[in-house]
Write a structure and sequence with these properties.
The structure holds 2 protein chains of 2 kinds.
Chain A (H helix, E strand, L loop, with lengths): L2 H6 L3 H19 L7 H6 L1 H11 L11 E4 L5 H10 L5 H5 L29 H14 L6 E6 L6 H12 L5 E7 L2 E2 L2 E2 H4 L7 H6 L3 E6 L3 H9 L7 E6 L22 H14 L2
Parallel strand pairs in A: 1-2, 2-3, 3-7, 6-7
Antiparallel strand pairs in A: 4-5
Helix pairs in contact in A: 2-4, 2-5, 2-12, 4-11, 7-8
Chain B lengths: L1 H14 L3 E5 L8 H7 L4 E3 L4 H13 L3 E7 H6 L2 H10 L5 E5 L17 H6 L5 E3 L4 H13 L5 E5 L21 E4 L4 E5 L4 H13 L4 E5 L2 E3 L3 H10 L2 E5 L8 H11 L5 E5 L12 H7 L4 H7 L4
Parallel strand pairs in B: 1-2, 1-3, 3-4, 4-6, 5-6, 8-9, 8-11, 11-12
Antiparallel strand pairs in B: 5-10, 7-9
The chains are: A alpha/beta, B alpha/beta.
Chain lengths: ~280, ~300
């Protein structure tokens, strides 16, 4: 498939339907466990969907030449449900999430199907991605590394080491995303750390090509990435809402981690069903 | 030792296009220039950014490459510790973390540049292997081993420059995970590793001058430690001496005592280590070792030699 065909191949309606389905599946799993970082997964649902269904090249028989790294490891529920839908993880894997008999935990664990790096501690994924990008370049595979960062982890000094190195080394095959929901555990980042912003300009100053779009508009994410010049590492700052899709979760920090009660679950189901096209 | 490391790595990289070196603004002198000129795409200088150095190595290894991280030992292990733990050990990747100038070699640079606890710290990490060659010849063997192994991460503790060779006529070959007898005697056995082997060799001469038959052993692989070999050394000598340039906790000395206890060894066992202290002395390497109680005189007195 050539670039133009790829660019035209992203179906925004289908993406919306998928993302509703993924949110519902995560909601259902939330009823099996006490906690699962639901707000963090909902925040980057459209971005991760776009990476898997729009950006990464997929071939029927071979492994994708591209790589996805969930640097914000705590958001991995969205990765798990997508891998389930793709048949990489099984329904049983998801049913046994965080259970003694299962193999999936609250953070991605290298060695599990579809998981390319162990993350969970913040500020690791971007340097790992730079190393992967160098390896792909060295072998001339054409492989692209897609990495999703949380805005909180952009506060880690190690992230900025990687930001400097990616552009200094000319890693044009690295595409990163910041899930910029403006929330971290102790509050709204724009209030607790106002100098964190502006964000996009900081990456630009380090020599990255950048774009800023609505991170819940999968088509906008897709077109921003596929329309990049591609001669530098690319950073997409996605403006997102923590807990997106469920009214009582949106921008409420407690939903970073906790699972809904039964009545809360039932309300969330109604909201997701109403949102269906 | 750092020059022979660079030579060995260049040789390995010539044969294997998957070998990378990621340095943090420190480059082994001599032939590393050859590496960076010949293979510029595989010589990566992250600058003063050690966390990224380890992360980049992890990413390379996740894609099947065989990377080495290289800088002064404190900055290769302590500064990016969590990256070493999570990125390399947790994922069990074949990355060699080279700690150059370990121990108190950087004597005049002060405690910020001393690496007194590295064996204990690296040894506590699951999956981590530890190699500490005693001379340039062993450094070559260890480097070539690291360039070829796929077992998992290695902490390679090396010296700086100008060390002589002690193993040219060693009894045993260098084998990963095995004690190496440099010389084999009957009465006294000196166990050591790293550049302080110099003191071990001098002590052996003093023992020999007093009429003893002496074994000197390079315990170059600290993890996995050759427990059977240590047990055999304890059983076959009346007097065993451990000399290590490392804190009293978590190194060869306490491990040897543990093995001695578990195997009900009957030999005399003396151990000499760095003190559990930061010593603000800015003399030579030998001066600093002496301040820690690791001078030849203090050790000789400790083992009953005058």
């Amino acid at each position: 498939m050539n670039d133009m065909a790829l660019r035209n191949s992203f179906d925004a309606r289908a993406a919306r339907a998928r993302c509703l389905r993924f949110r519902r599946r995560i909601l259902d799993i939330s009823q099996q466990v006490g906690a699962l970082h639901i707000g963090s997964a909902y925040s980057c649902t459209e971005i991760v969907d776009c990476i898997y269904y729009g950006l990464m090249r997929r071939f029927p028989t071979a492994k994708s030449p591209d790589t996805f790294v969930m640097s914000k490891g705590h958001g991995c529920m969205i990765q798990y449900v997508i891998l389930e839908e793709m048949g990489v993880l099984s329904r049983r894997d998801l049913d046994l999430y965080c259970k003694a008999e299962g193999r999936l935990g609250c953070h991605p664990d290298y060695g599990n199907p579809g998981i390319e790096a162990s993350t969970g501690s913040l500020g690791h994924g971007l340097s790992i991605s730079v190393g992967m990008a160098l390896a792909e370049r060295g072998r001339k595979t054409g492989g692209v590394i897609y990495t999703v960062l949380s805005d909180g982890e952009v506060q880690e000094g190690s992230t900025w080491e990687a930001v400097m190195m990616a552009s200094s080394l000319g890693c044009a095959n690295l595409v990163a995303f910041v899930d910029n929901n403006d929330f971290q555990s102790l509050g709204r980042t724009s209030e607790t750390h106002p100098s964190f912003y502006p964000l996009k300009e900081k990456f630009e100053a380090f020599g990255w090509e950048t774009a800023e779009v609505d991170g819940h508009d999968a088509a906008a994410v897709f077109h921003a990435v596929t329309g990049r010049r591609g001669d530098k590492p690319f950073m997409l700052v996605g403006k997102t809402t923590k807990g997106k899709g469920i009214s009582y979760m949106e921008n409420v920090p407690i939903w970073h981690y906790r699972s809904p009660s039964k009545p809360e679950y039932e309300q969330a189901v109604i909201e997701l069903e109403r949102a269906a096209p | 030792m750092r020059n022979t490391f660079a030579e060995a790595l260049y040789k390995a990289a010539t044969a294997n296009p998957d070998i990378y070196i990621v340095v943090a603004d420190i480059s082994p002198a001599g032939s590393m220039a050859k590496f960076s000129t010949q293979y510029p795409e595989r010589f990566i200088n992250v600058g003063v950014a050690e966390q990224s150095m380890i992360g980049i190595c992890a990413g390379l290894a996740l894609k099947g490459c065989q990377p080495f991280a290289y800088t002064i030992a404190t900055f290769t292990l302590y500064r990016p510790f969590e990256m070493v733990r999570d990125d390399l050990c947790y994922q069990n990747l074949p990355v060699t973390v080279v700690g150059m100038g370990a121990g108190v070699i950087y004597s005049t640079l002060g405690g910020t540049h001393h690496t007194q606890e590295d064996i204990a710290i690296a040894g506590a990490l699951p999956n981590m292997q530890i190699i500490a060659p005693c001379d340039p010849a062993e450094c070559t063997e260890a480097t070539l081993h690291c360039a070829a192994q796929k077992q998992g991460p290695v902490y390679l503790r090396i010296g700086k420059a100008g060390e002589p060779n002690y193993t040219d006529r060693a009894v045993d070959p260098w084998v990963f995970g095995k004690l190496r007898y440099i010389k084999r005697g009957r009465d006294v056995c000196i166990l050591s590793y790293g550049v302080i082997m110099k003191t071990a060799m001098q002590l052996a001469q003093k023992f020999e001058a007093s009429g003893k038959s002496v074994s000197v052993v390079s315990c170059h692989t600290l993890k996995p430690l050759d427990v059977a070999g240590i047990r055999e050394a304890l059983a076959s000598h009346a007097h065993v001496v451990v000399i290590e340039e490392h804190a009293p906790q978590g190194g060869l000395a306490p491990r040897t005592k543990q093995i001695a206890w578990e195997s009900q060894a009957r030999c005399r066992l003396d151990t000499f280590t760095l003190q559990d202290a930061f010593i603000h002395n800015y003399g030579s390497h030998d001066d600093l070792l002496a301040a820690h109680g690791l001078g030849l005189g203090a050790i000789s007195a400790g083992v009953g030699l005058t």
